[in-house]
Amino acid sequence: MKTSTVSVFAILFIVSSFGIINFDSVFASSVYIDVKTDKGTYHEGEIIKIYGNINNSQPFESILITVNDPFGKIVDKRQVSLNDKNKFVINIDTSKQLMSVGGSYSITVHHYDAIEKIYFSYYIPAMKKIIKIPTEFIVIIKPSQQIKVGEEYCIIAVLLDSTTKVVYPVSVSVSFEAYQDDVFYMEDKFSVVTDHSGFAMNTCKTMPYDPFLNNVNIQFEFMGDEKYLPTKSNIYNVRVLNSQTQTTPTPIPTQTQTTPTHTPTQKSLSSNTSNENFPIEYVIAGTVIAPVAVIGIVLSKRKKTAVIAVQPAKAQTKSDETQFWVCPHCGRDTQMKYGKQFCNSCNMYL
Predict the structure, then answer these.
(1) Distance between CA atoms of 336 and 317, rounded to whole angstroms?
(2) Are 350 and 328 in contact (CB under 8 A)?
C-alpha cells in the first residue's frame, strides 16, 4: 500500500512537469459566474446596477466587466475586485456613458477562462422640441448724441433674456462704422464675452482727436446658442465734435439712413442683485456712466493709419478752391482733403 501511494504521487509529479495537466485550467473550468441587473429595461438617464458573485474563486481577485451596445461597440469597460465573500457590484450612469442608441445591450463578465453574458434593454425617448429663450440688448450711451474731443463718453451694453435675467457667459460681437461727415472712413468688428452681470461692455473713455472722424455708428449682436435665440441691438449714432466741427448734428450717413437711431428702451428690471438677475443699480449708474471702449481703442489705431496713408503734396500745378498753396502757420505744403485744405504738419484744416 505504501509503494502504491508513492507511485501515484510520482506519476502526478512527472505528468505535471511535462505540462500534461494544467491545474489553472482545471481550476478555471470549475469557476461559476453569476451576474444580474436590478431590472431588465432602462430609460435614458437611469442608473444600471450590475451585481453577482463568483463561485469557487478566491476573495479579492479581479474580474473584467464589459458593456456593449447593440452594434458591438464598447460603452463601458472596467476591472472590479471581488469582496471577501467573492461578490461584486457596479453602477453605470447612462447619462455619462456613450449610450447614444436604444436597443439590446450586453454585459460580459470574464474571470480566468470563465465567461458569462447577459442582456438588458435600453430605451431612448424621441427627441424633444427645444424651446429657446428670446434675448435683447439694453444699451445706454452718455452723452447720447454728441461727444466733444477731450470729453468723457460712456456706453453700457447688457444682454438680458425675456425674463430680465442676465445672459452669460456668451460671445457678443461689437461692430462700428466711422464717417467723416457723409464719407465712409473705416469699420471694425470684434468679439467680447458677457460677464456674470451680463455686461458686453462697461467702460468710460476720453474722446481723442481725429480730424478724419466725426460720426460713429455702434451695434451689438448675439448669434444665439443651444439655449437662447439670437438678437441685435439698434444702431446707435454718436456725433464727435472736433474743434473745427460745426455744432449742428450731422445726419446718419446714407448707408444707414434706413435704420433709425433709437434711444435705449427703458425696461422694468428686478432689484434683485444676485448674479442671475440684472442689478438695478447698474441701470441707474448707466445713465451717468455708459461704456464703450471701442471708439477710443479704434480711433487710436486708425488715427495712425490715416496720417501715414496721406502724404503731403509735393507740388500743385493749378490753384484749388481755397487758394492755399502753403500753410500760413508752418510754411509747408498743404493738400486738398474732403473739399478743404489740410496741413499734415499742423494736423489741421485751413
Answers:
(1) 13
(2) yes
Q: Kindly report whether the global pTM for this prediction surpasses the value 0.85.
A: no
Look up the CATH number of domain 135-307: 2.60.40.10
Predicted confidence band of residue 287 (pLDDT cuts 50, 70, 90)? very low
Q: What is the dihedral of CA 49, 77, 32, 12, to 10 degrees?
A: -160
Check residue 273 and give left, alpha or beta (phi > 0: left; psi -120 to 50: alpha): alpha
Given the candidates 3.90.45.10, 2.60.40.1930, 2.30.38.10, 2.40.110.10, the CATH classification of the domain at 31-123 is 2.60.40.1930
Q: Label residue 199 exposed, middle or buried (CB < 10 Å: 0-12, 13-18, 19+).
A: buried
Does residue 165 contact residue 140 with C-beta atoms inside 8 Å?
Answer: no
Residues 147-164: tens digit of each pLDDT: 888 889 899 999 999 999
User: Where in the chain are the domains?
Assistant: 1-26, 31-123, 135-307, 311-350
β 152-161/135-142 pair status:
antiparallel
What are the CA-CA distances from residue 66 to residues 31, 39, 54, 118 (Å)?
19, 18, 16, 11
How far is the C-alpha of 60 from the C-alpha of 84, rounded, in Å? 6
Domains 31-123 and 135-307 equal at CATH topology level:
yes
Kindly give, in sequence order, each residue whose CB lies less than 8 Å from that of residue 107, ignoring residues fewer than 6 positions away.
35, 37, 50, 65, 66, 67, 117, 118, 119, 120
